[in-house]
Write a structure and sequence with these properties.
Chain A: It comes from Olivibacter ginsenosidimutans. Chain A: This is DUF3823 domain-containing protein. Chain A: InterPro entries: DUF3823_C, DUF3823_N. The complex is a heterodimer of chains A (about 230) and B (about 650). By secondary structure, chain A is mostly beta strands. Chain A has one helix at about 1-20; strands at about 30-40, 55-60, 70, 75-85, 85-90, 105, 110-120, 120-130, 135-145, 150-160, 170-180, 185-190, 205-215, 220, 225-230. Chain A folds into two domains: about 30-120, Immunoglobulin-like, CATH 2.60.40.1120; about 120-230, Immunoglobulin-like (Sandwich), CATH 2.60.40. In chain A, about 5% of the residues lie in helices and about 45% in strands. In chain A, the strands form four sheets. In chain A, strands 10, 11, 13, 14 and 15 form a five-stranded antiparallel sheet that branches. The longest helix of chain A has 17 residues, at about 1-20. Chain A is extended, with a radius of gyration of 25 Å. Chain B has about 650 residues and is of the alpha+beta class. Chain B has a five-stranded mixed sheet, with no helix packed on it. A two-stranded antiparallel ribbon of chain B has the order 1-3. Chain B has a two-stranded antiparallel sheet with strand order 2-13. In chain B, helix 15 packs antiparallel against helix 17 (about 555-565). Classes of the chains: A mainly beta (about 230), B alpha+beta (about 650). The interface of A and B includes residues 15 and 194 of A.
């Protein structure tokens, strides 16, 4: 027993003496956080809870640097508390807004706050979701920001507040595939009797209006979700 | 004992500490050099067997969570996940699938390509064989290389094309070859197919080794893939952005689609006119006969290789070795596999798949006929059993009659509740309706006395070894309500143990070639009248083999549906959805469906009713459009431009 302990200590010493020198890299020293806001209304742009928009960035000064990213949260804010200070290229595309040109940014040690102002592909105006008898009715208007046609409009339902295209138990979607005129009124409805096992009477669910534009790599734009007791 | 281990550790550390001798420069004497290997005919054969064995064939031993040839150098237990579980063909009784392939086919691919390139370099110098034999070896090498690059291209788009073995001369930068464009990559694959076809000449080697016909079959499949990329990698189907797109490393311009479709048509046409291939039992007398033919063909393909045949290229297995496969233990019903070390019942065809078949109305429309469960005709209700709903009743001793009159291939591939499989009646039941109509049980084992005085159970029998469906306690019971027949060796059962299955995998068959032809014609922009006519015949010949008697129109929808039902479980479906760029649209928060047989004791005798459900525990599946191109591994070291 004693001799095996001696050997173990010997091995430990051997390992310690042959390991590398003390870690020579600094820890991440910067925090990069901010908001994605509508250039026209100044409001935060709500996102899908999974596979939503992201801030992409490439740290300069390395050979073959990979593209990194930070998810924009469902409320339209983002925060990466473990960034290295340095020069970055910031890419804002593949979201639910018109992509921005690539930005050069210096992330300095400490806190870096940035608001990105963008044009969402679609603005959902005057959203209203009500329960009438055994039907959930959503009415809204759309503002088409680009010349791209509207791909589809949807009403989603789920028990979680972040109900969306990738998180729902009921999805009523109509494909429009056309441009829309200002002031055009849209209506989507869910007949609760058709979903008796997924939207159970007596429980509360969140309902949310979404709309997606045609175009390269677009994502849904959302109104706020609405809680309704069934 | 402890002491010895400690000593060994100590010695090992000492050895590691003095590793500065030029030990790596010593010529290894446990390996055969290329010169020695290729000096004999047997050596060449051994090397060819090695190369064929490493070919990325998506066969019985391909698993999206592990890779190719599972069991060779790795654990055979991959939880029974096959490509079908990743598409709309099937769900798994225990786990949810996990998006996309979990492994990178990159290093293995380039290792194989290097060995093929070494073969190509070595063949001209061989003194042991004559020119004809050299041509054949070269042709096989080109075929193998095309096959391997195909596996890379469909995953990564444009990849570095390496045509001769690289040598390290002290400059690492020389070895870093940038990516070719996706178009160059597909052109290279098709050119290798052409080189192989030409060099093979009329010598026949098939179906286990490549010849002219196998090379043409590969070309038919690859050209169709390239054409689909060109046609569908644009709006309104899907689009990508980033440096890889800007440089053409992913995506092909739409204008090239037709040239690829034409190459597919030409290669398929050569096979169709060769007189060497035909559908197995092309004109059955009845749907029953058609179903039996189709089932037996996949159960024992080796028996149908003489004369004019349907299999073009097959892969065989060796029992009791790592070169066997495990379909018969993974996918047999629970009732037939009781060994606790085996995990049966793992292929659960979805209701989505079962609903995709035609019946024999044969009115020329090719319309699919979903199973009938309710008197009111509402087949869109997935809320589960409801006491107030009027369900269609099926006999207690023959619930499988729900599939009566459906396309023969459905009964040949899918095991329905109550069917006799081998000598066992397969019991799949998930619910019980009380005799007095006061309630019901669903997926909870319990017993009730029926109006005939007999005792009945939720799962159809009292003990967990006596039924095959819906019991949530083990992952051995179907969750969709269906089990699996295709490929299964029921007429000549193998021992229920690991590594016993040896039925051959048909990698290319004539049926696929007919569908490739039909699809290329229906998708290209202006097919000739003769092409359209031949394509329509090809499509309908497959339906005729399944005992249909009408002629349906050549449309995109009909061709795609026919591919789905004819080639199901042959690991083609996932790639079809990928190349049509429809995967991300058909799998957007989608739950694949199931069908639960309930024994309804409200009547005497009791009867079966069927309830459409979202299977318990099956999560919604989403295919992200960015998965169409996988991430290239190691880009920070190899300097390759990453996919979107």
């Amino acid at each position: 027993m004693k001799s095996s302990l001696t050997f173990n200590i010997l091995i430990l010493c051997g390992l310690l003496s042959t390991s590398c020198q003390k870690d020579n890299l600094d820890r991440p020293d910067a925090t990069f956080y901010g908001e994605l806001r509508d250039r026209k209304t100044g409001e935060l742009i709500p996102q899908e809870v999974s596979d939503g928009s992201r801030v992409y960035y490439i740290e300069q000064g390395w050979e073959n640097p990979p593209v990194q990213n930070t998810v924009i949260k469902s409320d339209g804010t983002f925060k990466n508390g473990l960034m290295f200070s340095g020069n970055y290229k910031i890419i804002l595309d593949r979201g639910n807004y018109v992509p921005l040109d690539t930005l050069d940014m210096n992330i300095h040690s400490g806190e870096n706050f940035q608001v990105f102002e963008v044009n969402p592909y679609l603005r959902i105006l005057e959203p209203e979701i009500v329960k009438k008898d055994r039907t959930i009715i959503a009415t809204f208007k759309l503002e088409q920001v680009t010349s791209n046609q509207v791909y589809r409009i949807s009403l989603f339902a789920h028990s979680h507040i972040d109900v969306s295209n990738k998180l729902n138990v009921v999805n009523k979607t109509i494909e429009l595939n056309r441009s829309i005129s200002d002031g055009e009124q849209f209506q989507l409805s869910i007949n609760l009797d058709e979903y008796s096992s997924t939207l159970v009477a007596g429980n509360s669910y969140y309902f949310r209006i979404g709309a997606q534009s045609h175009g390269n790599e677009t994502k849904y734009n959302y109104a706020a979700s609405v809680k309704i007791d069934l | 004992m402890n002491r010895i281990i400690c000593h060994l550790f100590f010695v090992a550390i000492l050895c590691l500490g003095v590793g500065c001798t030029k030990i790596l420069d010593i010529e290894p004497n446990d390996r055969v050099s290329p010169e020695d290997l290729f000096a004999s005919k047997e050596g060449v054969e051994a090397q060819m067997a090695n190369l064929y064995g490493r070919l990325p064939i998506e066969d019985f031993n391909y698993s999206p969570n592990r890779g190719f040839n599972i069991g060779v150098g790795s654990d055979v237990n991959n939880a029974g996940f096959m490509a079908a579980h990743f598409s709309d063909e099937a769900i798994h009784p225990e786990y949810n699938d996990f998006g996309e392939e979990w492994f990178d086919y990159w290093e293995d691919g380039y290792r194989l390509i290097r060995d093929i390139n070494i073969l190509l370099q070595t063949v001209p110098q061989l003194a042991s064989i004559d020119q004809a034999a050299k041509d054949k070896l070269n042709a096989e090498a080109y075929f193998l290389r095309a096959y391997t690059y195909f596996a890379l291209a469909k995953r990564y788009g444009g990849v570095p094309l390496i045509e001769s073995p690289q040598e390290y001369n002290g400059n690492i930068a020389e070895l870093k070859v940038p990516r070719n464009t996706e178009k160059e990559t597909w052109d290279f694959i098709l050119a290798d197919c052409d080189r192989a076809t030409e060099l093979f000449g009329e010598v026949e080697n098939g179906p286990r080794r490549a010849d002219k016909w196998v090379a043409l079959a590969l070309k038919s499949r690859a050209a169709l893939f390239a054409a689909s990329i060109a046609k569908f990698s644009h709006q309104p189907y899907v689009s990508f952005s980033g440096p890889a797109v800007d440089q053409g490393l992913v995506g092909i311009e739409t204008k090239f689609a037709d040239t690829y479709y034409d190459q597919c048509i030409a290669a398929s046409d050569a096979l169709m006119k060769s007189g060497k291939f035909a559908l197995y039992q092309a004109e059955p007398a009845s749907p029953e006969e058609a179903a039996e033919n189709y089932r037996q063909f996949f159960q024992q393909p080796d028996q149908y290789l003489n004369g004019v045949r349907e299999p073009i290229f097959i892969k065989s297995y060796a029992t009791n070795t790592v070169l066997a496969h495990n379909y018969d233990v993974w996918f047999s019903p629970r009732q037939m596999v009781l060994d606790p070390n085996l995990y049966p019942g793992r292929m659960n065809p979805t209701l989505d798949f079962v609903d995709a078949f035609e019946d024999y109305t044969d009115d020329g429309t090719g319309k699919v006929k979903p199973l009938k469960t309710r008197a009111d005709g509402n087949e869109n209700d997935y809320n589960g059993f409801n006491l107030g709903t009027n369900y269609i009743a099926y006999p207690q001793n023959a619930p499988y009659k729900i599939a009566e009159g459906r396309d023969a291939r459905l009964r040949a591939m899918v095991l329905f509740p109550g069917e006799t499989w081998g000598s066992t009646q397969i019991i799949i039941q998930g619910g019980l309706v009380k005799a007095n109509g006061s309630g019901f049980y669903y997926r909870t084992q319990t017993s009730e006395v029926g109006q005939d005085g007999q005792t009945y159970y939720t799962f159809g029998a009292a003990r967990s070894t006596q039924y095959s469906g819906f019991d949530p306690t083990l992952g051995h019971y179907t969750r969709s309500g269906f089990l699996f027949k295709k490929f299964m060796q029921i007429d000549h059962p193998v021992e229920q143990a690991w590594e016993r299955s040896t039925q051959s995998w048909i990698d290319f068959r004539y049926g696929e070639i007919l569908l490739n032809y039909a699809e290329a014609v229906v998708e290209k922009s202006s097919p000739t009248g003769a092409e359209s006519q031949t394509a329509k015949e090809a499509l309908n010949n497959l339906r005729r083999r399944a005992a249909h008697t009408d002629q349906i129109a050549l449309t995109q929808q009909n061709v795609r549906k026919e591919r789905f039902v004819e080639l199901a479980f042959e690991n083609k479906r996932r790639w079809d959805l990928v190349r049509w760029r429809t995967f991300h649209k058909s799998f957007e928060n989608r739950v694949r469906k199931g069908l639960v047989p309930f024994l309804d004791l409200r009547s005497n005798p009791a009867r079966y009713i069927f309830v459409r459900v979202n299977p318990l525990g099956i999560e919604a599946k989403t295919f992200d459009y960015l998965w169409y191109y996988k991430d290239i591994p190691g880009t920070s070291a190899n300097g390759l431009i990453q996919n979107p």
